[in-house]
Amino acid sequence: MSAIVLLILGLGGMAAGYFLYSRFIATKIYRLDPDFKTPAHEYEDGVDFVPTNRFILWGHHFTSVAGAAPIVGPAIAVIWGWLPAFLWVVLGTIFFAGVHDFGAIWASVRNKAKSVGALTGDVVGKRARSIFMIVIFLVLLMVNAVFAVVIAGLMMNFSTAVVPVWGAILVALIIGQLIYRRILSLPVVSVLGVIALYVLIFIGPAVPVQMPAEVGALSGNAVWILILFGYAAIASLLPVWVLLQPRDYINGLQLFIGLIVLYGSILLLNPTLVAPAINPDVPAGTPSLIPLLFVTIACGAISGFHGLVSSGTTSKQLNKETDARFVGYFGAVGEGMLALAAILAATAGFATFADWQAMYTAFGQGGVNAFVEGGAYMIHNGLGLNEVTAATLLTVMAALFAGTTMDTGLRLQRYIFQEWGDIYNQPWMKKNAPATLLAVGSCLLLAFGAGGADGTGGMIIWPLFGTTNQLLAGLTLLVITVMLVRLRRPMWYTLVPLCFLLVMTIAALLIQLRAFFEQGNYFLLFLDIVVLVAAILVAMECASALKRSRAEMAEQQE
């Protein structure tokens, strides 16, 4: 089958979702009000609460939620065949991710930009909030610790990407000043920023930077992890307009250009999908398609981490409530487009079926490597671009998005500690510096405490990320559903996705529980039980709140 057919169907479906379905959700369900005073204006402080142009905010939101996950998940899941991955990405983007991300922004904006964890206390109850905050903390801990490992690995394996990745930070700092000081218009700054980024990408292969394999008692990989957390700590303390917004905005533009290059090479090359639609001969040890597909592909279909970004940083920068549709739903569409590109690169970016099989020898294989190798193959053969440069372009794309997610993730983790300081009346925890130190310290404790001198401890608990992340998405939808019931609005558009997610996630947790027990991995077994119990308790609390809200409505009608 031609990859072009899949490309047209996927992009067409997502476009219809944005122009038709999201408009219906905005007007009939969330009922956005252009005159509503958003928290960005009400609590403007120039640091976290900053009214922001919707295009710049979209860039921040999209690149923060994207990261490497919409590349890794789909590029692993095609081991079951391209059809299940394609359907879940397209339908998940339209009916799950868009509604979830859009709804989390709306819910937070309507409640003083509170995070979804803190919002749970107001909408559901204090017990649910306490449990929810633990789940959120675990997700952020996994994301920050693991994305540091992913970026460090890219820096070690692709030395040509080091200069473009770190040079992008300088470009972002300059762009931030040009926009904030109104020195140049946004279109001019956008063009100059993109040109600067691509100049760096072409410079990268000429100036490779290789970290030594050993630096004192630490590996080169561990040194990169320490550098990344040092950078992320500083970035999370800076006002959002200085680095976070411009970095994310310019990366968003860079991604779309990268997607145009990748999609353009597909149109010119017209490659064939060498992978089967349904793979009947999966490697030994590969788990069942259902329910594992729905937790293997999280970002790109629906992800609980998106709710944290939506209610953590995005809601504090929303200029008008009506911007939530463009920022939230179209942000999900952008990520769906990236996931679609990952599927195509991982299934049509190989010369033969045997080459594809050689990449997918076991479950968990593929990922970023399949995306980079497959994408570089198509760009080289479709556009004639040098393979090293093509691979550098895609590596930089993956590293920049992982980096922006890590920036935002650490800021969100700081917010969690500050909210705990508020909940438990600890004034020192509400200050930026101590909360940031706690956030970084917890990540480093996991990275080096569990992973030793190599700093890869985050990978130990990563097998639980998919289920914990999707659980968080389901619980976020529960909070939104309760709000809709209290406002006497249709709830089925959020209730159906959340029921599906909770069923699939709890089933996946139970399957993993058995696997961890059989493997004798009692640490992950314990964490799996904690997450499973948390899921059941919060679901029960939300069901109780939903029942109470419906009962109150019935009484009022009488």
TrEMBL record:
Annotated keywords: Cell membrane, Membrane, Transmembrane, Transmembrane helix
Main localization of the protein described in the UniProt heading: membrane
Top-level taxonomic group: Bacteria
Annotated membrane topology: Multi-pass membrane protein
Subcellular localization, as worded in the UniProt entry: Cell membrane
Protein family according to the UniProt entry: Belongs to the peptide transporter carbon starvation (CstA) (TC 2.A.114) family.
Domain annotation CstA N-terminal: ranges: 3-347, 364-508
Lineage: Bacteria, Pseudomonadati, Pseudomonadota, Gammaproteobacteria, Oceanospirillales
One protein family per Pfam: CstA
Organism (species): Billgrantia ethanolica
Transmembrane segments: 85-109, 130-152, 158-176, 183-203, 223-244, 256-278, 290-309, 329-354, 388-412, 433-453, 459-485, 492-516, 522-540
Annotated protein name in UniProt: Carbon starvation protein A
